[in-house]
Amino acid sequence: MARGQRKDIDGSASVPCFYGKELRFQRERAGRTLEQTVDGSFYGATYLSEIERGQRRMPVDLARHVDRVLETDGYFERCCEDVRRARRSGHAEYFERVLEAEKHALSIEEWCPTVFPGLLQTGAYARAVVRATHPLEADEETEVKVQARLARASLFEDDHGTPTYWVILHESLLRQPVLPPEAMADQLAHIAGLVRRRRIFPQVLPWSAGAHPFMLGTALIMTFADAPPLVYTESLHTGHTIDEPALVTAYRKSYDLLRAAALPPEASLALIESAAEDYRHGKQPR
């Protein structure tokens, strides 16, 4: 792309992109730069630019500011909640902040002891988990959730913007046949493939580790270049985002102790690939 040339916004790509394209149109029609538009708000020009490209959600206070500056009669405030709902389509409302944050994270570290994390799931595995949680749900609703979960994994396809992803998996996940053997082999091979492509760092916590520092709960820890770190923890039908510094530090310490108890990445990869091979041959991994 030539210097100074901006990228067009495809408003048909998604509701956030449609919203962002209209925002850019109204801003340029008013003859204002990004800097002039955010002047007097608590946000920067880069933040507004990312909203225009459909990459960030519009906070209500910024929407009100933009409506006032661009004289758009409350349009952006009225529509910002619709955009937020569209952005989290297929995800629970309490997960919204994670969807926003992980796109801008420098690093993501995760501990999810009872299922493979959503970022690592195949379609078959995600479908089995969603159906087990919502057994009476219509197939169409399940499929929306599955596709939304798979879309998150696009983080691993961007060569320039990929966050460092470090995951600790309990060995029980390799042994629990959530799917038929061939599909379980595909799930494990998918994780191994991400490792081989140098997209993730896995560690397996072996059964033999016994008691460990993170026996209760889950954790997803994210760091950023321009913001304080966040922790997200989840239970069956709810989740909580934590940004209180002392609590974030406590989670960070527990995660580091857990990582010290886990197998190194090379041994973990060997264990994952061995389990996949066992499933391929119709064996229950030992």
TrEMBL record:
Entry keyword Protein biosynthesis: no
Coiled coil spans: none
CDD domains: HTH_XRE (cd00093)
Swiss-Prot/TrEMBL keywords: DNA-binding
Top-level taxonomic group: Bacteria
One Gene Ontology term of the molecular function aspect: DNA binding
Keyword field contains Nucleus: no
Domain DUF5753: 95-273
Protein name as annotated: DNA-binding protein
Organism this protein belongs to: Streptomyces kanasensis
